[in-house]
Amino acid sequence: MIPLMKSAFLHEKQTIKALCTFLLDSPQLSMGPQCRKFEKAFAKFQGSKDAVLFNSGGSANLCMIQTLLNLGRLKKGDPVGFSALTWSTNVMPLIQLGLDPIPVDCDTNYLNVTVNDLKKTHKSHKLKAFFGTNVLGFAGNLDEIKIFCEEKDIVFIEDNCEGLGTRLNGGMTGSFGDMSSFSFFVAHHMSTIEGGMVCTNDMELSQMLRIVRANGWDRNLSAIDQHNIRKKNNIISEFDAKYTFYDLGYNVRPTEITGFIGNYQLQFLKENIKARESNFLKIYETYQENPDLQNVKVDHLKTISNFSFPIIAENRKIREFYMQQFSGAGIEIRPMIAGDITRQPFFKKYIKGTFHIPNVRFLHECSFYFGNYPELTNTDIETIKSCIIKY
After folding, report:
1. Of 248, 266, 284, which marks where a domain is finished?
2. CB-based contacts of 110: which residues, under 8 Å, 6+ apart?
3. 65, 153, 185, 275: which has the highest count of C-beta atoms within 10 A?
4. Which of 91, 133, 84, 105 is closest to 350 using CA atoms?
5. What sign does the dihedral 86-88-93-96 (CA atoms) show?
6. Using CA atoms, how far apart are residues 180 and 356, in angstroms rounded to an integer?
7. What pLDDT score was predicted for residue 103?
8. pLDDT value, residue 270
């Protein structure tokens, strides 16, 4: 069988041995220096001014929205666009925190929202923010989306949980928005078992993210930021400051285990991305030759850090045929993430109305994906290709 993933970590045995040594020797397992070291190293890799580590990618998404509300950049009831082809944790915080979630259709050529899709939605809903998802390591025209959002004063945040390492001419995915989230769950590009990160170049957002992450207090701020927030709130006593809470927050802190594994796995990240791109291109060559399947545009990508490989059939009947091909060959497959999110039970329960998202609905019915990861062997790749060939 070819599963969605074969190991929790790249170079798994080596990583687990290093983790065991760390656990035996570490004087602290709650959030501490390993976490901060990982934040700094990841920010450097991503090319951002700062990075804030969380206990999961879902928590990172939640805290980005709470941060915008705390700072007044969003208000309850504001319309927030989101990629309709996405994961639940991009939409649930919008509902939970009292915003008005507006699904945005995608372009099937990109498998992602493009600036034209966003413009259409903004015309009818006057969006205050857009939460975009970089699906499966692909991307729309993020540079144009960024410019449009700046022109219309739309807060732009990216979910880059599936796109770590993908690069466009304008930079890496996850570097176009005001904030961007990343996931280190075991099935993602880089694993810390559970874990997530937010990158940003806006230090006001960075400061509030740290407050939101830890119950609303200031313990993880710099000494200067602590001084300023205490002065602003007339907190004079160091004793009182220990249990002073400045804004709405959660306890979604990571552990030193997360930080250590992140630091250790970073040394393999470029190798991981290179292998994923190599696998993708080998399979993509065969995929392009099949007229039953719709292509995905990648020529605007300088690096393709593919998370999983999509199969986009011309219709439902053809999809069923290829699903049987893959299942019969022992290749694990999945729906196209959460598909049309507006069909999900939680969304229908809380959000009423109809939405025009024909491309996402087509993908919901006519596509699926299989895993791509460095441990795929040449034999695995040949087996996969044999399932894609049109006979």
Report:
1. 266
2. 138, 139, 140, 141, 296, 297
3. 65
4. 91
5. positive
6. 26
7. 98
8. 97
Q: Is 188 a catalytic residue?
A: yes
pLDDT of residue 187: 85
Residues lower than pLDDT 50 in the chain: none
Q: Is residue 1 part of a domain?
A: no
Residue type, 133: T
pLDDT of amino acid 391? 74
Which neighbouring-strand residues pair with 107?
112
Residue with tokens 């208000």, as numbered in its chain: 75
> Which tokens belong to 333?
């497959």
Q: Which of 11, 122, 125, 188 is catalytic?
A: 188
379 three-class SS:
helix
Look up the domain containing 184 and give its range.
12-266
pLDDT at 185: 96
Q: What is the DSSP letter of 177?
A: S
Look-up of token digits 């979630």? 101
Distance CA 382, CA 118 (A): 39
Say whether both 90 and 111 belong to one domain: yes
- From the list 165, 200, 193, the residue with the least C-alpha distance to 264 is 193
Q: How far apart are the first and last CA of the chain?
A: 22
